[in-house]
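2024-03-11 09:14:02 DEBUG pipeline.ingest accepted 1 chain
2024-03-11 09:14:02 DEBUG pipeline.ingest length=68
2024-03-11 09:14:03 DEBUG pipeline.predict start
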Amino acid sequence: MCEVAERLEKRGIEKGMEKGMEKGRLILLAQLVDDGTLSLHDAAIRAGMNDTDFKKTVEKLSSDISDK
């Protein structure tokens, strides 16, 4: 049973790291848009989203960060 718990814990850690890296990537793209290095459209493409979804996602991330 301990082995199963260890595998579940490892998988949870991996998922958390993946989510964190994706959030970091989106924040970086948003910062590049903010400083004029990248257009919103180009950032959305790099994020695999359309312009509207990218903007909504970044706004949600921003509000999540400011709530902490």
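2024-03-11 09:14:41 DEBUG pipeline.report The chain has a mean pLDDT of 92.
2024-03-11 09:14:41 DEBUG pipeline.predict end
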